[in-house]
Design goal:
Layout (H helix, E strand, L loop, with lengths): L1 H21 L7 H24 L5 H22 L6 H24 L1
Helix pairs in contact: 1-4, 2-3, 2-4
């Protein structure tokens, strides 16, 4: 339980600094938070629980499913013209996927 809490706290602190560096705001608006949350949840379940812990998916299948979901989210953003696709947004998404996968693995291991 201590490792989950530690990972969550360290991840939250790093997310704060990442948001300040990339977005110039500690807490992004609701729309941006939904996109970051989608990436976190996909990392948590698909990569962290279903692949790394449960071995329900092969790594290739997990990456394909994750890529498909993230690409659909980017296409939706392009369709509604929410924001431009740039390096900062991609790096933020990768961070959210990795943080979600790590917490998903640790949570599944604990349960």
């Amino acid at each position: 339980m201590k490792t989950i809490a530690f990972t969550f706290i360290v991840g939250s602190v790093l997310l704060y600094f990442l948001n300040m560096a990339m977005l110039k705001t500690p807490i992004p608006n609701l729309e941006w938070s939904i996109h970051a949350g989608i990436r976190f949840i996909v990392g948590f379940f698909v990569l962290g629980i279903f692949h790394f812990y449960g071995k329900a998916f092969s790594f290739k299948s997990a990456l394909i499913l994750t890529s498909f979901i993230v690409i659909l989210d980017y296409l939706y953003d392009y369709y509604v013209e929410a924001y431009r696709l740039n390096l900062e947004i991609i790096l933020h998404g990768i961070y959210m996927l990795i943080w979600g996968a790590l917490l998903g693995y640790l949570t599944a291991k604990r349960i």
